[in-house]
Amino acid sequence: MKMKYPFLDLGAVNTPYADELVKAAERVVRSGRYVGGEEVERLESMLSGMTGAPYIIGVSNGLDALRLILKGYVALGVMKNGDEVIVPGNTYVASLLAITDAGLKPVPVDADIQTMNIDSQLVEKAVTPKTKAIMTVHLYGRVAWDNTLADIAKRYGLKVIEDNAQGIGGIATTAGLYGSRRTGSLGDAAAFSFYPTKNVGALGDAGAVATHDKELAMTVRALANYGSDRRYHNIYLGYNCRLDPMQAAMLTVKLPHTDRENADRFERAVTYSRNIQRPDVVTPMMSETVTDNVWHQYVLRVTNGKRAEFISRLAENGVGTDIHYATPPHRQPCYAGLPHSALPVTELLADEVVSLPIATGTSVKDAAEISEIINRLEL
Ligand SMILES: *Cc1c(COP(=O)(O)O)cnc(C)c1O
After folding, report:
1. Tell me: the pLDDT tens digits for 235-252?
2. What secondary structure does DSSP assign to 59-105, as a single string?
3. Which atom of ligand 1 is nearest to the CA of 139?
4. Which is the closest atom of ligand 1 to the Cα of 206?
């Protein structure tokens, strides 16, 4: 169905940059350098400047970024087969796939109903002698970071890994483990995804690892390049997970616009939250600061058990929506048998959440009109 208000129009997202993107693509075409090189290095230094993380490694995608961090820790002997990683129950399945792929055990912890992120009050109960890390996920763009998480990590000597696929540009209200407060430099290492739908999207798959740990950085760089530390010298059983310079070139065009784009998302979010008023809809918690949520998604809850109707009635009115996510990772067939504690909030969210259009292509006026449509829906 052709929507008056599409959920996401990637053409509209990239069209404002079309001329610059074409120029950057031409630069790559004429450079003769199609793996690694200047474009990748330029993006890495831009990301380092933006986040405050001293080491950045451009990689193939967000899942690979997470895998490489964890496999890097395994290669360095910081973690070993069977060790546990605490991860939010309410996340995209990729967070858990990376943990499993590194031979580690995901331990999902329930969400806070307000933030929809990991409930940091429940984290300490999930720590066992096998726990080696906490993976914090800035889900829907809301920065998942507080003193409780930092304190537990310090007391138990746990690594903190950020899944920053959805939180690029976010700023925490509390300082990170190394002082810096931008997402991507709050913990020991962070994974970025530049999948086209993310806040900063490439025109294909792309990702990056950010870290404060020089040894981990060197290990990740080697693992991503056949496990070699120098040409034809392989210290690890590695992979090919390098960042495509064409995508790096696209990203050097888009990255400088991150803060402005995120501010635009915030305006749309505020418009929804001010205007949507129904007893059976709970709008997402507004932020303490403008930057502690980059609004990757605007996720509300339909609490009357009629989500499917809500979505189809919106579609009839030309409003595209999506669900992030209808099935939490621990309910996926691939994780059948995964031991976990009760995750009632995660399961409630899976039944109630609906994402509204928030990206470029949806104007503030559109958001106001969509809000009115929602207020008038008869369910
Ligand atoms: C998108 C996403 C990933 C995976 O990133 P890809 O680049 O698609 O591999 C991981 N975690 C979260 C939370 C994501 O949203």
Report:
1. 999 999 999 999 999 999
2. ES-HHHHHHHHHHHHHHTTSS-TT-EEEEESSS-HHHHHHHHHTT-E
3. 13
4. 7
